[in-house]
Write a structure and sequence with these properties.
heterodimer; A: 410 residues; mainly beta; Pectate Lyase C-like; 2 domains; 13-stranded parallel beta sheet; elongated; B: 255 residues; mainly alpha; 12 helices; 87% helix; 0% strand
């Protein structure tokens, strides 16, 4: 919010001395290139409706480029369309189409390099390899954009919103689909990612590495090739997100690899093959989430420690928790498990018998994936029952000592 | 033949066992749907009933019925009727009564509370298992002369299909885990009607888990149109072949 105010303030003060440059097919200035050349710092360029095929344009001064009735900047499948560098630039209401693809360069519809205070809003970007590519940029906002890729193979496609070495960024209300990764971050810090919808991407809906202190709020990641994968990061806050229908052999609602000191709260995980897969992660608090109809709700590898899972609700998952070793350094408490069969004599809402979320069968499947064919068979339920009576094989330390009798109110 | 089936049906209904069975199924399914707040959990419990109880009751009931109406069958044999017709009408009577009590007992609550694809595949599985185990029971009772042995054999067969077979599969999967077993498991699962029925329900219920590494193969196979046909076809074979064998044995049997 603070960044936004600064940006707005700068715009307002800038506007006082600003000129308006009108660009249009039937106007005195008919190409955007001329318009940009003419503009001084603080000027506004009004781009009228039309199709502009002008190769790669570069804006390196503080101008506001505003599209009227969605003018189209066409890259003719061979160019990068617009490059921004510098300070205080606004791009609004423009339709970018057909940026080029190159194996050497990351051509994007809109590339922002070495910039500060940039506002990209209400644009639409269609058929490009990279959508919006920001590098070494701070204090900028990307919001209300629609980015639709052309959904080719993984190597020939780029990321929808790609940030590299940025900080204090806001990514809000964007719709991203059909790219390689919907949102990709590397070395991005102190940023907030809100209310985006990232779906039908070839690889990940959201993918970040080495991006500390960011918060992800109320985003939806749906039906992406491999779900969401986040790695090598600390201090992540993820709240009110929805992870949905990420199906496939290696698709995860969210894959946490080497994530630490983070919060995952109030999210919904619905119908993913694996809702949360964790490895090498520590000190994560996973609370008040809903896990519904996933294949595996949580797969926590033995390399994770000090994570807390509490007040989550588990409904109709084929497997609640799976793990790959007997060492358990994580805590589970006050979760609601629909498979819990205990009782509550003192009526305090907490079950008197601990719940073992790792069933024996889930250990068997972990060792021998083919035995998934026996899911729900009498044999398997008998095995699980026997294991409950004589706990020996499944990791007996992984228990929820205070399972809730009724679902937690979320 | 139709007339004979009608008499068999009258006889079965008069014995009240089938009514008790219907009432049991109806009460269980109705209370399951009422007890659980989400119907998917009720379906899960129902699944266990369908995979375990329905085959068991079908088998035991058929066997006992066969031995109890042995004298009636003998009487009929003295009439100018072919043995084939007599056995088939017995089968039609028993199968029809078991099927209708399943459809009333489970079908009505399922259609009422959960009329979706899971519910329908549940009903499909239940109906086919009823018929499959009725014909298996006919085979065993035609083969064994005395009642105790017949019931024992039926129980053993049920035990084999419901439990031992899956144990064997698990054993094979573990012993040969170094080899690619995906295709073999597919074949093996077709050799047990209970497994086949379970998989066809599982495809609807655990679709998320089945999209995982190995599950995807099963999903691709059984989930496709050809897979559905395959399941239905194999189920039909499981109904027809034991019945045909039973007919063969019955025709040549020295009564």
């Amino acid at each position: 919010m603070k960044n936004l105010l600064t940006i707005l303030f700068l715009f307002v003060t800038g506007n006082v001395f600003a000129n308006k440059i009108v660009v249009g097919k039937d106007k005195a200035i008919s190409t955007l290139r001329q318009g940009i050349n003419k503009a001084q710092d603080g000027d506004t360029i009004l781009l009228n409706k039309g199709i502009y095929k002008e190769g790669t344009l570069v804006i390196d001064k503080a101008v506001y480029l505003i599209g009227i009735d969605h003018p189209v900047l066409d890259g003719e499948n061979k160019n990068e369309i617009l490059t921004l560098t510098g300070k205080n630039i606004v791009i609004r209401g423009i339709h970018f189409a057909n940026a080029g693809y190159s194996a050497m360069n990351d051509y994007a519809a809109l590339k922002i390099i070495d910039a500060t205070n940039i506002l990209i809003e209400n644009n639409s970007i269609v058929n490009t390899s990279f959508g919006i590519h920001l590098a070494n940029t701070i204090n900028s906002v990307v919001r209300n954009n629609t980015i639709k890729g052309n959904n080719k193979s993984e190597h020939s496609s780029g990321n929808g919103i790609h940030l590299w070495k940025c900080s204090n960024m806001q990514i809000e209300n964007n719709l991203i689909e059909g790219h390689r990764d919907g949102i990709y971050f590397e070395f991005v810090t102190q940023s907030s990612i809100q209310k985006n919808l990232s779906e039908n991407n070839i690889r990940y809906g959201l993918h970040f590495m080495f991006s500390h202190d960011n918060s992800y709020l109320a985003n939806t990641f749906r039906n992406n090739g491999a779900g969401v994968a986040v790695m090598y990061t600390k201090n992540v806050r993820m709240e009110n997100n929805v992870f949905e229908k990420n199906w496939g052999p290696s698709a995860y609602g969210i894959l946490l690899k080497d994530i630490s000191n983070s919060y995952i709260k109030n999210n919904k995980f619905i119908q993913n093959t694996v809702a949360i897969h964790m490895e090498g992660s520590s000190r994560i608090e996973i609370e008040q989430n809903i896990f519904k109809e996933n294949g595996w709700a949580i797969k926590v590898q033995a390399s994770c420690d000090d994570n807390k899972f509490f007040q989550n609700n588990f409904f109709g998952n084929s497997f609640d928790v799976a793990t790959n070793g007997s060492l358990v350094l994580n805590k589970f408490y006050k979760n609601y498990w629909d498979k819990y069969e205990g009782y509550d004599r003192n009526r305090d809402g907490v079950g008197d018998v601990p719940y073992h979320p790792v069933s024996m069968y889930s250990m068997i499947v972990e060792q021998n994936p083919n035995s998934l064919i026996l899911l729900r068979s009498f044999m398997v339920s008998l095995l699980d029952k026997a294991e409950k009576a004589i706990p020996s094989l499944a990791s007996e330390n992984l228990t929820d000592d205070k399972p809730m009798i009724k679902p937690n109110k979320l | 033949m139709l007339k004979l089936s009608k008499y068999v049906l009258y006889d079965i209904v008069r014995s009240k066992v089938i009514l008790a069975y219907t009432a049991f199924l109806f009460l269980v399914s109705f209370s399951l749907f009422n007890m659980e707040e989400n119907s998917s959990k009720a379906i899960l419990s129902l699944l266990n009933i369908i995979l375990i109880v329905v085959p068991l009751i079908s088998m035991i009931f058929t066997t006992i019925h066969y031995y109890n109406s042995y004298e009636f069958i003998e009487l009929m044999l003295s009439q100018p009727m072919s043995r084939r017709k007599i056995l088939l009408s017995e089968y039609a009577g028993v199968g029809l009564s078991l099927l209708s009590s399943f459809l009333i007992g489970v079908g009505v609550p399922v259609l009422f509370f959960s009329p979706d694809s899971i519910g329908f595949s549940l009903l499909f599985t239940g109906c086919s298992l009823t018929l499959v185990f009725t014909s298996l029971a006919f085979l065993t009772s035609v083969m064994a002369r005395d009642k105790a042995r017949g019931i024992g054999f039926a129980l053993l067969l049920w035990f084999y299909f419901a439990l031992i077979y899956d144990g064997l599969i698990l054993l094979i999967l573990f012993n040969f885990s170094d080899y690619p077993l995906e295709k073999i498991t597919l074949v093996l699962s077709a050799l047990n009607p209970i497994d086949l029925g379970r998989i066809s329900i599982m495809l609807k219920m655990d679709v998320s888990a089945l999209m995982g590494y190995t599950g995807a193969l099963y999903k691709d196979f059984f989930g496709s149109g050809a897979g559905t046909l395959f399941t239905a076809g194999i189920m039909l074979l499981w109904i027809v072949i034991p019945l045909w064998l039973a007919l063969r044995v019955f025709k040549r049997k020295d009564l």
